[in-house]
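Moderator note: this is an archived Q&A kept for reference. The question asked for a predicted structure of one protein chain; the sequence and the answer are reproduced below.
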Amino acid sequence: MTTQRRFSRRFATGGALAALALTVTGCFGSSQGGANDNPDADVTITFWHGWSAPNEVAAIQSTIDAFEKKFPNIHVKAVGNITDDKINQALRAGGPNAPDVVSSFTTDNVGEFCDSHVFVDLNPFMEKSGIDPEKVFPTAQREYTQFQGNQCALPLLSDAYGLYYNKADFKAAGITSRPRPSRSSTPTR
């Protein structure tokens, strides 16, 4: 396994553990949960995620196993192969069948769920845990996982992109410098 893949796997696992640790502290599937809940209470949470391939499910379960080992009073019931549509429907409906923690593949609904308080503001939980999000998460990741100052989601993955090109072929084609994104393709925030 390459160093980059090991780093990515560790970062993703660390992110998932951090997300689980922060979100289960409040068990926000219940309207009574909050940052002042007893962190030592025995609790079972339901975690919905979209992964379905056997190796992905095994990686998620491995992360959950490590989490439960570190926090033996917190039990995680994982439900995989959940689409964002199912997440949206369950969170809107609420009630005892709604998940406590979700992992979504889209950021389109962060603002809506933050604003409606379907997703809880994680700032009090991070503060209680001594986590400074500005030191832990890059700016872009913090920005797309919050809404109007409410950090109601956490980034799960970080992607790094690269472009490989053949210098000899470029030289033969008369291209004298490496490719660069145009100004119009540079993301803005």
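Archived answer notes: The first strand starts at residue 43 and ends at 48.
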